[in-house]
Amino acid sequence: MKNTLTGFVEEACVSDFQFEIQRRTFHTFGYAHDPSAATSVGVVGDAEKADETGGLTVFESKTKKGKKKRSRVKPGDPGDVDGYLGPWAGYVDEERVSKPGEEDRAYLEEYIAKKQKREPKLEPRDVEELTELHIEDSVDYQGRSFLHPPMDIGVNLRAGHAPHKCFIPKRCVHTWTGHSKGVQTIRWFPGSAHMILSASLDCKVKLWEVYHGRRCVRTYSGHSRAVRDVCFNRDGSDFLSAGYDRMIKLWDTETGQCKARFNSHKVPYVVKFHPDENKQHLFLAGNSDKKILCWDTRSQHVVQEYDRHLGAVNTITFVDNGRRFVSTSDDKSVRVWEWDIPVDFKYIADPTMHSMPAASLSPNERYIACQSMDNKIQLIEPFNNFRMKRKKVFKGHMVSGYACGVDFSPDMSYLISGDADGRCFFWDFRTGKVMSKMKAHEGVCIGVLWHPHETSKVATCGWDGLIKLWD
Question: How many CB atoms sit inside 10 A of residue 365's CB?
Answer without folding.
Answer: 14
